Amino acid sequence: MLPRKDLFDIPEGVIYLDGNSLGAMPKAAQARASQVITQEWGKELIKAWNTADWMALPQKVGDRIAGLIGAPAGSVATGDTLSIKVYQAVAAALRMRPDRRVILSDNGNFPTDLYMAQGLIDTIDKGYELRTPAPEDVLAAISDDVAVVMLTQVDYRTGRMHDMQAITKAAQAAGAVMIWDLAHSAGAVPVDMTGSNAEFAVGCTYKYLNGGPGSPAFIYARPDIVNQIEPALAGWLGHDAPFAMELGYRPAMSTERLRVGTPPIVQLSLLDAALDAWEGVDMAELRAASIELSELFIKEVESRCPQLKLASPCDPETRGSQVSFAFDHGYAAMQALIDRGVIGDFRAPDIMRFGFTPLYLDKDDIIAAAEVIADVIGNDLWDDPKYQTKSRVT
Amino acid sequence: MLPRKDLFDIPEGVIYLDGNSLGAMPKAAQARASQVITQEWGKELIKAWNTADWMALPQKVGDRIAGLIGAPAGSVATGDTLSIKVYQAVAAALRMRPDRRVILSDNGNFPTDLYMAQGLIDTIDKGYELRTPAPEDVLAAISDDVAVVMLTQVDYRTGRMHDMQAITKAAQAAGAVMIWDLAHSAGAVPVDMTGSNAEFAVGCTYKYLNGGPGSPAFIYARPDIVNQIEPALAGWLGHDAPFAMELGYRPAMSTERLRVGTPPIVQLSLLDAALDAWEGVDMAELRAASIELSELFIKEVESRCPQLKLASPCDPETRGSQVSFAFDHGYAAMQALIDRGVIGDFRAPDIMRFGFTPLYLDKDDIIAAAEVIADVIGNDLWDDPKYQTKSRVT
């Protein structure tokens, strides 16, 4: 049953609509960190790699994430950051299509995905091209020179969703490899990696999965292609026998070959603890709750604030678990909201972004948030000098 | 003054000689983790990127590490794993020498450094070659087709040290770019990055720096070349304006361009807390203490255990802060030692490895350890079936 507010510690007076940027803290986090730090590291020291089974933790966490994205156990590797996982996926995909020279993405993709792809092809320096049409033009842009289609399923600014099934099918029909970035999907919408047939997916865990600031990323590879992958980031923990200390790299015969270096045990443990809150959650129920919250939010805000222009799709079926409004004074307005306990965020140039996390939000929260928004917008409370100074992160 | 045992929590009955693999837990770790998790993440949520200055943490920690390796503030970026940092350095160095095709390392290097370099050149696929002569033949192998010399200063198995000044000078005289891996150097021996004139250094922080399991890595770039580096791993947090969300990558005009994705805030905070133990430590004093401990250890062990053959250099000036002994039954013997509270580790095929961390070890520890070693070896206590089964990490 949703929500599961009792599993989270939300500060008094806060309505947190930014779980799409940094998920809220599960109550279990602190105890797990303390266990890892004082008992495992502190008491077991180096032995904890075995006695606390740190070595198996990346795979254990990967299996739990797999369960949330419609993927089989053993198909998800964890570690590093999403940027690194994008690089691994694109590099592997390009090697699977040696005769093609185009990476197709879209200009709504999160910038780091584009940067990482560009950094890779500049490094390879063999005439690769990164194409970024508008999101709605992607399907038409899939041509038979495309090696890789790399898209983020849910747009970080607007919440618009790509049709994973249709685009994957078209990409593969054209002979391209498909990579999905699930940053705003994992834990937000039902994902069926197996059903999609896509070769790769990547994602982060500090948003809807509540792993904490900078928690590790993940990468999925379709089981039938795993052993063909030639890892660009050929780290020792992706080796078939890391502790044999062989001079030559031999990739593990599993998704483990997409591991790189020593795993961040404390953050992986926090993520593992956070995933407890997902035990038994039915993703269809989660999606229904998410849509109910976002539809209610749009109705309540639009009826009170004609100044705000919906920047997300109207149709909830094509929208992730967030709603954005465009507003010329969006930056200042978001600061004013945050000051009053309604925490969303701002994305340049004018997007006020609100995320819906049915694990710890209910309808009362949404109505209360809409009232504060109405107050801030209707009474121009954002028009105070203290809300105009930009901080680095919003 | 050394040691600073009061800053660390070493379990009763343990003599910890494996700080070269995973440093001991500073007492400050738990309180800092609790602060970051319950106060910053829990109470401030997304705002903590500003209010707790998470955005500045990677650079703050980088500056503190810089101080320990003879590098100026602003020259060290932190994050990711050492494997990733090796990849960044090698990729950047190869682009600085576009007409050369050889990476020179040695066959004593830690395997992941070799794997990452190989993965990179296989990805670029333009006829690059990774050469790995024996460590003692490296100087002679520096020829004018070498683009990059990439070495680990202190050998992970034996503690043998390369001459950083001499090799860097020879590499640069031949027109090559120099990369030093400081995994077993940072916090272990005095390092003078500025004085070495090397272009790059990389390292990890969970060994002598005590950052905790999987704490983030670091990369140094010589300040005069930073703005020529074309990052292969062009992540958004290395962008000049990450939150402008530009479609094209523009690297930061500083070492920040070697940052990649979202930093692991909890582990960075643990590392930051661990670095407090290094405040005011004089590296010359540390080195003197380290040599005193290792010389005493060799003397005490050799006098008691003729069965053990010293696998480290006799001359402490050419040895890092560890001592290794070769022993045919080394694996079982190490298990027997660990069972008796003397914790070192084993590296295939026959190396018993002991690290010396003057922050939390004194001469009494060394003598006590030698007595336990004498008991285990002299009385064949390792010859018990329970010590023969290999675990994954030792």
UniProtKB/TrEMBL annotation, chains A, B:
EC top class, as a word: hydrolase
GO molecular function: kynureninase activity; pyridoxal phosphate binding
Protein's pathway: Cofactor biosynthesis; NAD(+) biosynthesis; quinolinate from L-kynurenine: step 2/3; Amino-acid degradation; L-kynurenine degradation; L-alanine and anthranilate from L-kynurenine: step 1/1
Entry keyword Hydrolase: yes
SUPFAM superfamilies: PLP-dependent transferases
Cofactor(s), by name: pyridoxal 5'-phosphate
Highest taxon of the lineage: Bacteria
GO CC field: cytoplasm
A Pfam family recorded for this sequence: KYNU_C
Reaction catalysed by this enzyme: L-kynurenine + H2O = anthranilate + L-alanine + H(+); 3-hydroxy-L-kynurenine + H2O = 3-hydroxyanthranilate + L-alanine + H(+)
Known role: Catalyzes the cleavage of L-kynurenine (L-Kyn) and L-3-hydroxykynurenine (L-3OHKyn) into anthranilic acid (AA) and 3-hydroxyanthranilic acid (3-OHAA), respectively.
Family, per entry: Belongs to the kynureninase family.
Quaternary data: Homodimer.
Name of the featured protein: Kynureninase
Source organism per UniProt: Pelagimonas phthalicica
Gene that this sequence comes from: kynU
